[in-house]
Amino acid sequence: MPSGQVRRSLAGVTDLPDELDGRSAEEVLAFLRTADDDAVRAAVHGIGTARVLDLVFDGWAVRVGVRPGRQPGLLLFEVDDDGSPHRHALALTEGGARHLAEPQEKIRATVRTSLVRFLKVAAGAQDPKRLVVTGRMRLSGDLVWAVATLAGMQQA
After folding, report:
1. What is the C-alpha to C-alpha distance for residues 11 and 5, in angstroms, rounded to an integer?
2. Is the pLDDT of residue 37 over 50?
3. CA Rg value for the chain
4. DSSP for 41-82?
5. In 3D, which of 58, 42, 48, 44 has the Cα closest to residue 9?
6. Which CATH class is domain 6-155?
7. What is the rounded CA–CA span in Å between residue 70 and residue 140?
8. What pLDDT was estimated at residue 156?
9. Domain locations along the chain
10. Chain centroid, CA 98 distance in Å
């Protein structure tokens, strides 16, 4: 398969490039759900944090899809990779979602967390509500909307 092609992976969370040593979606999911933080961090750094986050957010935008009655807004994620910040946003509407690497719109809520925590949430391995309660994920802005949106993304 040419390197530019991608395959659907992470149970609909993202598309992963073919260069990932031929791992199946199930293997990647199992890895993210069960690997310790250091192993996840090392695997992501081997691929490139920015590349992995772009793929995850692009896939998440597709995954959350059309939701009649969804309250619109821009959800900003500030993902910390050992002191290196990565900012990504999802613009959510009833008609779908789109990934914005540089948000230009008014932010409704912000999510701050570590790279590993974010990836485990994206893989469905950790509950974002529990992370908020324990302080491993911080929210600002419209907190009720942010929690409801994160919960909906987990169920997508």
Report:
1. 18
2. yes
3. 15
4. HHHHHHH-HHHHHHHHHHHHHHHH---TTPPPEEEEEEEEET
5. 58
6. alpha beta
7. 19
8. 57
9. 6-155
10. 12
Q: Is 60 within 8 Å of 90 (Cβ atoms)?
A: yes
Gap between the Cα atoms of 10 and 71, Å rounded = 26
Q: What angle do CA 154, 42, 125 make, to 5 degrees?
A: 20
Q: For strand 84-93 and strand 73-81, is the pairing parallel, antiparallel, or unpaired?
A: antiparallel
Residue 9 confidence (pLDDT): 37
**In what helix (H) or strand (E) does residue 131 lie, and over which residues does it extend?**
helix 128-133
| Res. 15: pLDDT tops 60 | no
* pLDDT above 80 for 6: no
pTM of the model as a whole? 0.80
Task: Name the DSSP letter for residue 117.
Answer: H
Whether residue 26 has pLDDT greater than 90: no
The stretch 70-92 carries a mean pLDDT of 93
136 SS3 class: coil
Instruction: Quote the DSSP letter at residue 103.
Output: -
The burial of 5, by beta-carbon neighbours within 10 Å (0-12 exposed, 13-18 middle, 19 or more buried), is given as exposed
